[in-house]
Amino acid sequence: xxxxxxxxxxxxxxxxxxxxxxxxxxxxxxxxxxxxxxxxxxxxxxxxxxxxxxxxxxxxxxxxxxxxxxxxxxxxxxxxxxxxxxxxxxxxxxxxxxxxxxxxxxxxxxxxxxxxxxxxxxxxxxxxxxxxxxxxxxxxxxxxxxxxxxxxxxxxxxxxxxxxxxxxxxxxxxxxxxxxxxxxxxxxxxxxxxxxxxxxxxxxxxxxxxxxxxxxxxxxxxxxxxxxxxxxxxxxxxxxxxxxxx
Length: 246
Prior knowledge:
Elements: H1 7-18, H2 22-30, E1 36-39, H3 44-55, E2 61-65, H4 72-85, E3 89-92, H5 96-106, H6 115-134, E4 139-141, E5 158-161, E6 166-169, H7 177-187
Helix pairs in contact: 3-7, 5-6
């Protein structure tokens, strides 16, 4: 398979990836041709993927969405990760005009006031930069795992994204958090110190809190909202728009 142009192609790739280990999955994806982009939030899952890309010198671009509201610990980890793996993590930042327009309409921290305002902030700081990061890409690699939340329980290894006209690959879909932590310990992977302080999922500083005992991994994201399926929009499509390869 050298080109992914349909739901059927994605289904074939999904089946192929299921039987491989992480190194095999990433190597197969890198061999498909076209521009492959891995977007990292510098979370523990993403650090595992970055380690594999760096250690095996895979031709996969590594990018991050530098929203302007990240934790200082996350920003420091970007530099540390680049140094350890001798890679370049491309930073995609929001446009100042978009931030100014958001602030004029909702206020700088208006995301606390309504779901609409929060979605608009994510749109300006994450979705628009993501569109630039993926422009011209044929493969998008993510760190999504089924165990992260109920909303992600059916995450496939590969799916066709018709909105972005590319293949989305989730090579850690079947990894649980214990396997992630074991890999990190065995391979001395640098991780965000906030993980040890009760932050299993780390996003923008104003929108992330530590979780309480027994809470799901992503309970600390947009913690003031009641919707259990809350997401920023990076991995959510309009109903019926996305076709998943199973």
